[in-house]
């Protein structure tokens, strides 16, 4: 594993943008090893024994925070979950003050989720430890894209040459942005499908194809990745009604017929059943990878914690 991390040249994991194909592959290969480890009776390792991981989530989260907590504990780290709702941050402490406070605690890795794009990057500039972006605003969510890539790779053998359709609320989705970067780097073809009101302007500059019709967009797709409507980020009316949205952009068996016969379904969660995806299709064990995505999340986050802990130790040794 030492040789692996020596080729990972980043102290932090703030986004997929800026990573090389080799670095993504290294993280996915290490994640695969942790999938096997997590399926053993004895799941705990001592890789990060003596290290401290702090989860600092300014937004509520179940899957991401829990999987990072599990990942840290399975690697033998001391894991602390900071509750923002009861912390000094709620009493008026600035992000810079928080960084200074955390720095004094000398953590080794900080995992941050924040509602504002760029906030995690700002924290990384003020801290002496490694920082992982657990999702910042509508900017990036790198570990979600990595776990999606691992899920696809395990089923399809690779990513290059695949056609992946990402459907739904592209405008507010950090998951979409991280996946667009990763899939492009790894040689996949990316299509974005959604109503014009939920499509960022000039998004086609990222090398994607944009569709406003589900059947046309899904034609020939290998993977269909659905996104939830992020109503908490919407100010104003972006869709006429939930019923109308599902009629035109909700995935069901009829619309899925436009994709390849063996096309697989993904969703980063949490799902709005009957809004962006039909409930029966979401639970179809032959077509849906949604449960597998959750399992891959722990393995990917173990790989990221392991890699950054070793890279950071290497940086300290060299300084």
Describe this structure in words.
With 319 residues, the protein is α/β, with parallel strands linked by helices. Helices cover 41% and strands 14% of the residues. It is built from twelve helices and nine strands. Strands 7-6-5-8-9 form a five-stranded parallel beta sheet. Helix 5 (119-126) links the parallel strand 3 and strand 4. The protein is globular. The protein starts with a helix and ends with a helix. 45% of the residues are buried. The model is unreliable at 1-5 (pLDDT under 50).
Quick description:
By secondary structure, the chain is α/β, with parallel strands linked by helices. Helices cover 41% and strands 14% of the residues.
Low-confidence stretches: 1-5
In which order are the strands of the major sheet placed? Answer: 7-6-5-8-9
How many DSSP H or I helices?
12
Mean pLDDT: 91
Helix/strand/pairing category = alpha/beta
* Strand segment count: 9
Q: Please give the alpha-carbon distance between the first and last residues.
A: 21 Å
Q: How large, in whole angstroms, is the Cα Rg? A: 19 Å
What level of helicity do the residues show?
A: 40-55%
Morphology: globular
Estimated share of beta-strand residues: 5-15%
Q: What is the succession of H and E elements?
A: HHEHEHEHEHEHEEHEHHEHH
